Amino acid sequence: MKKIVVLGDFNPKYYTHHALNDAIKYLTTDVNNELKIEWVDTDKFDYANQFRTEYSGLWIAPGSPYKDMDNVINTIRFARKNNIPTLGNCGGFQHMIIEYARNVCGLINANTEETIPDGKENIISKLTCSLVGQQEEISVLESTLLHSLIEKNHLIGKYYCSYALNPDYVTLLESNGMLMTATNAEGEIRAFEISSHPFFLGTLFQPTLTSSAEEPDPVLMGFVERVSRQP
User: Cα dihedral angle (68, 73, 74, 76), rounded to 10 degrees?
Assistant: First the structure.
């Protein structure tokens, strides 16, 4: 049986975490009963050993700041370098970008304004207008993994976040191989991927918030199907 780790610090007060658990139920029963998806706290996951012995996929949960940000970053780096299918939403999206900026782009002090408000290299910055509880139409770039999953040029993304990619760093990320795959009407980045990786996709929007047992979100479906094909 294939297993996916949800790397995050579950909080029963967060409705987004309950939405993620609802998604897990139908992804592991109605969709693929040969798959197991389970939470592990960010300060307890031993990525080097547990990817080798237990898990075939990484799902980075919303809900930052995390108990152990360094372990989250190191886990993402391990998954990226070892071709482990990886999906991150909201805080997961943000920390995937931080990891890439530090370890690929050479921005060693890359961080988020959420944890270091006065940081000099905050690649993740606070939004002028919070997206907590908001939704918007997003344009998706053709010939990308995201487009192949949703099979359309637009989607409605739902959010529960106040931080996003600092636009000052988009060119740096793109010049180092990160592909920006989705934008809102103002051109702000809402998703990215790494084309050379089997599945390395981050979305600021949360697919679990638009998913249901009757209509499973295609991003989530594509992710679990990719994990299921892992050797």
Answer: 130
